[in-house]
Amino acid sequence: MYAIVKVLVSAVIIGIITEVARRFPAQGGIIAALPIVSLLSIVWLHMQGEPTDMLSKFAFGVVSRLPAAVVMLVIVGLSLQHSLHLVGSLALTLYAQDMIVKHWA
What we know:
Largest sheet: none
Number of strands: 0
Number of helices: 6
Strand content: under 5%
Low-confidence stretches: none
Oligomer: single chain
Structural class: mainly alpha
Order of helices and strands: HHHHHH
Helix content: over 70%
Shape: globular
Distance between the termini: 42 Å
């Protein structure tokens, strides 16, 4: 039952964000950029009784992956701006992420 509540609450929040983004793209982007998913995850983990050190590790894990998210969003935004199809934009993003990981490994 708890899993269903988590899914429903998360889905409602995502639905609200996409509706705002549909009507007001810039404002929707600002709302989507908020760490809503991360904060929801921390709340759900806390409610499930996870220790605070695990929540802290999770939060720092999210922060350590922010550069990859920024690169992905910049590539998708630029690709779509230059009339590349969404699927092509996502493929280009995956390729770029792969190149970055191989370079840093």
